[in-house]
Amino acid sequence: MNKKIYRSTDDRLLAGVIGGLAEYWSIDSTKLRIIFAILLVVSLSTLTLLYLLLWFIIPQKPSTTDFVEEDVVDETNDREEEN
Questions:
Q1: What is the pTM (predicted TM-score) of this model?
Q2: Which of 17, 25, 34, 45 lies most in the core, judged by the most C-beta atoms within 10 Å?
Q3: pLDDT per residue as tens digits for the range 13-45
Q4: What is the DSSP string of the chain?
């Protein structure tokens, strides 16, 4: 199984990082947000830098409409090549 990590487009409050991590690890995002908030206070905002870094590193989850549009374009190109 090839599991990839993405920022969540559905379960997001700011950038979808925590929601994406929760989906990847199959845990409740609310629990992960609470843990993150506690660690944020304890770490004296060092965790903020990690969150911002993950925001730029982790790609956003592609929507299902992106896949449909790509399939339509591919089929159109295939038809043009056949003719």
A1: 0.68
A2: 17
A3: 889 999 999 999 999 999 999 999 999 899 887
A4: ------B-SSS-SSSSHHHHHHHHHTS-HHHHHHHHHHHHHHTTTHHHHHHHHHHHHSPBPPPHHHHHHHHHHHHHHHHHHH-
